[in-house]
Specification:
Shape: globular
Distance between the termini: 60 Å
Low-confidence stretches: 19-28
CATH superfamily of the domain at 44-129: Cupredoxins -  blue copper proteins
Order of helices and strands: HHEEHHH
Strand content: under 5%
Largest sheet: 2 strands, antiparallel
Radius of gyration: 22 Å
CATH class of the domain at 44-129: Mainly Beta
Number of helices: 5
CATH architecture of the domain at 44-129: Sandwich
Strand order of the largest sheet: 1-2
Number of strands: 2
Length: 133
């Protein structure tokens, strides 16, 4: 009598399901972009308008924002993937909103000026910035 290496289907199917789940979590379909950070109360379309209104393009290049090609400040094309903002703050919604509202208050000596952005407008602007992957 010959031995086989077969296992009952009841032990093979859960293993296949687990492997498929892990593959989805680890890599998806080759898409290595992180999920877009959500900003409570933030509207992406409004944020894009506000980035134009507050003339952020005077210092930054910002994809999707008309005429935003300046190099005086850092480019924001991969902002949503960056770990830190202003060189030391965790890139999360609340620190970002504080930064947009009052950059010198958050990091004294920064060249980024206080433009008078309200916390509400800053949430919208942050929502747009997080779409930049």
């Amino acid at each position: 009598m010959r031995e086989t290496n077969s296992r009952p289907i009841t032990t093979v199917l859960p293993a296949i399901a687990l492997a498929a789940s892990l593959a989805g979590l680890l890599g998806g379909c080759g898409d290595d972009k992180p999920p877009v950070q959500r900003v409570p109360g933030g509207d992406v379309a409004r944020g894009k308008q506000l980035l134009m209104q507050f003339q952020c393009c005077a210092c930054h290049s910002i994809p999707g924002v008309e005429a935003a090609r300046s190099t005086a400040g850092p480019p924001l094309d991969t902002f949503g993937r960056q770990s830190y903002l202003a060189g030391r703050l965790p890139n999360q919604p609340e620190p970002l909103v504080r930064w947009i509202v009052d950059p010198p208050g958050v990091k004294p000596g920064t060249l980024m000026p206080n433009l008078g952005v309200s916390p509400e407008d800053a949430r919208h602007m942050a929502a747009y910035l997080y779409t930049l992957q």
